[in-house]
Amino acid sequence: GEKEEETGGTERREAPTDPRGKTQAKQAKMMEGSDTDGGEAPSQINSENIRRAVQYWLDKSTIHVIPRWGVFATLLAIFFLRIYVIQGYFIVAYGLGIFLLNNFIAFLSPLDDPNDGPGLPSSAKEGKEYRPFARRLPEFKFWLACARGTCTATVMTFFSVFDVPVFWPILLMYFGVLFFMTMKRQILHMYKHKYVPISFGKAKYKDAG
After folding, report:
1. What CA–CA distances, in Å, run from 197 to 1, 72, 140, 143?
2. Dihedral angle sign, alpha carbons of residues 79, 80, 82, 88
3. pTM to 2 decimals?
4. E strands, the chain, where?
């Protein structure tokens, strides 16, 4: 009698489960997953559409150099007007000035440093050959960085945590000295390696090539 009870218990334990239950459980999990994905999809789609729209207009603005820099000048004027009106956030203005100066130096610098090897013409014969000046920071990226930095600095002026009390004439004097020393070093670098990063006023040959 005991053996039969053990055998019966074993059979009950080894009884196969209903396959329809597994199928229903899988379908329920799939429905939960689809509901979750459906809740996240709209926000992802909207952010992707915004990113594509911004990139589209940035790509269209690449050929409009003067209007782009006009927009940057307007943003910069708005920023300094706000600094003048509220008489604060001078440390933010100083940081923006350092940021713009670093980007300007990168814009004036060649992509290949002449000190690392032969990159720029070192003789009169090599100088006569046409070699386009490759910048470390292209013009469009330079403009984009300046515009983003100015917008970021303007937003920072709406938060009192960035209004650190400083004596602004000292910051202005220090920035002036830093600007003078940095530009002097850059001009000496241009004179030493005989390159001109400014393309305005250079001779253009219509029939060349």
Report:
1. 102, 21, 15, 16
2. positive
3. 0.67
4. none
